[in-house]
Write a structure and sequence with these properties.
235 residues, alpha+beta, two-stranded antiparallel ribbon, 6 helices
Length: 235
């Protein structure tokens, strides 16, 4: 039945930009089965989830594999059984670092290590210390319009919140980032005004940043009241 649902959803959303999500998740599943963790965009699981905020648990190897997770960057959250439902994802924005239920024990371990002049960590201690949590804002959802499955839609809220263990969190690739930035821009009279920069710092963990163009449609400005503001040399 799950294969039938996947086939139906695939056929219904052909030509929709949200198809990039399906290709992304299929590639992630293949990398996971092949244990190619260096190629995965997976960053962790959901620890707490609400309508406005989310807390995710992640680990240093996952963060390094995706080139780092700076504050203000986008993450996407998908259901564990994403293939059984129409393609959609929840958009998250990282706001900061969050304590975990084991934060006190981790601090105690670091304290003891510093007292001993920080000797080399054993494998088990290193594995425990590399886990952490991130606070995120829930910005909304991207999904296929139920009345016209070839159209992409975005909502500033989410349609449902279920148990946190039913979700996975990923760092979007270039195709998903392009969908997030330009997916809702009207196709007529598009112009590129710049490129996406998720942080001021130009140093990335993997040595390469993104090059996603930011586009606007002049149809959003024509016939609308516009204004240009500035300030004098004295501020």
């Amino acid at each position: 039945m799950s294969k039938l649902n996947t086939l139906v959803n695939t056929a219904a959303t052909q030509g929709n930009p949200i198809d990039a999500l399906r290709a992304f998740l299929e590639r992630e599943e293949q990398n996971e089965q092949a244990r190619r963790t260096q190629d995965m965009r997976f960053v962790g699981y959901v620890l707490e989830l609400g309508y406005d905020t989310a807390k995710i648990i992640t680990s240093d190897p996952y963060k390094l594999a995706v080139g780092g997770i700076p504050r203000g960057s986008f993450l996407i959250m998908t259901p564990v059984n994403a293939g059984k439902t129409p393609p959609h994802f929840t958009l998250l924005r990282v706001t900061g670092v969050s304590p975990t239920p084991l934060s006190n024990q981790v601090q105690q371990t670091y304290f003891e290590l510093h007292k001993k002049s920080m000797p080399e960590l054993d494998v088990w201690t290193q594995s425990e210390l590399q886990w952490g949590a991130l606070d995120c804002d829930v910005l909304g959802m991207f999904y296929a319009n139920p009345k016209s499955m070839q159209k992409l839609e975005f909502s500033g809220d989410v349609n449902n919140v279920v148990s946190a263990h039913r979700y996975k969190v990923f760092a979007p690739d270039d195709a998903i980032l392009s969908l997030i930035i330009n997916g809702m821009v009207k196709p007529e009279q598009r112009s590129t005004i710049g490129s996406l920069r998720t942080m001021e710092c130009g140093l990335f963990s993997d040595g390469a940043g993104t090059n996603i163009p930011v586009e606007i449609s002049m149809r959003d400005f024509k016939g609308c009241r516009t204004a240009m503001f500035g300030k004098t040399r004295l501020g």
